[in-house]
Amino acid sequence: MLREIDFFFYIGSTYTYLSVSRVERIAAREGVSLRWRPFHVRAIMIEQNNRPFVGKPVKLQCMWRDMERRANRYGIPFKSIPDYPVDPEGLANRVAVLASLEGWCPEYTKATYRAWFLENKAPEDAQHLRSILSRLGKDPDATISQADSQKIRQRYDSETEQAKELGIFGSPTFMWGAEIFWGDDRFEDAIDWAKSHPS
Amino acid sequence: MLREIDFFFYIGSTYTYLSVSRVERIAAREGVSLRWRPFHVRAIMIEQNNRPFVGKPVKLQCMWRDMERRANRYGIPFKSIPDYPVDPEGLANRVAVLASLEGWCPEYTKATYRAWFLENKAPEDAQHLRSILSRLGKDPDATISQADSQKIRQRYDSETEQAKELGIFGSPTFMWGAEIFWGDDRFEDAIDWAKSHPS
Lengths: 199, 199
Prior knowledge:
The structure is a homodimer. Chain A is an alpha+beta fold and about 200 residues long. Chain A has a single domain (about 5-195), classed as Glutaredoxin (3-Layer(aba) Sandwich), CATH 3.40.30. In chain A, about 55% of the residues lie in helices and about 10% in strands. The first copy, chain A, has a 4-stranded mixed beta sheet with strand order 2-1-3-4, sandwiched between helices. In chain A, α4 packs across α8. Chain A starts with a strand and ends with a helix. In chain A, about 40% of the residues are buried.
């Protein structure tokens, strides 16, 4: 039986770096499949007045230190705090939406997160984005053009709308049935839940 | 060598129920001591405009469901969502401050959290608080009078001020040296850090 956990994420979320770097290996080991679903969490957060770090420097500082320690704990490279926030126009995320439809979303998302966190390259930077797409064997012009198309913009919006209707408000979120597991630190909970509630 | 982790908490924090119910057993197993330090996290949160649930019904609902699942995971009883918020005047927390000075803070805090979560008894309710104090072998009148004294009020304030200066903004927070671990779900990280950084 195929077990599939929805992995809702937003390129620009900080803790999502940890998930992007580790969920595949764990899911494979546990016999669980993941469906990578990029969505516009920032729109939902603004709408719900849920801004965990904007104007909260003490909490922000603690988050980065926690990220660094958690990365070390997981054996995930962490160099320094990258520029943040990123992707104001949503291009990097719309490329992820296209990639999710075409089957190369994990590779792209991992590459863009690694470059963001380890080389401080903004995911939406045009030259950098083209370089990543080339390395993935994609035509940069055609891909960016598709990511800018109405079809992909609408898909991004509809995925965001669906996430919101499901009660999702943060990235990463793992969903199994009606159960919402928010946060990289709840991925193991989601896996255990999926395995113990197979139907 | 004595290893002591500061356990900053506020009676009224939801996730603190999980910590109060489980940290002693784990700390004992791991050979780590805990110093229970009640503080007024709500004052810090208001000052820092950090209100995770006020006006955020979607996030609030997710938190309670997560609490319930986590309680089940840990084998901690969870009956239903209790009334929230509690202790508007700070009496229940000031009793905890007194208890922390006199050595009965864990017993009191566990008793008041159990009653809040399992019987929906507000920690500050006078009749209920007196009953808890009696069961702990304390004189209710004398204890409440001390908790209302200037000395204990000042201690509550100074502990809160110190927590704020340390960069603490949430409950529960575990602190070892300069490292801040925020959240019940970071207790194991704090333990591991303390054990691997003994000096």
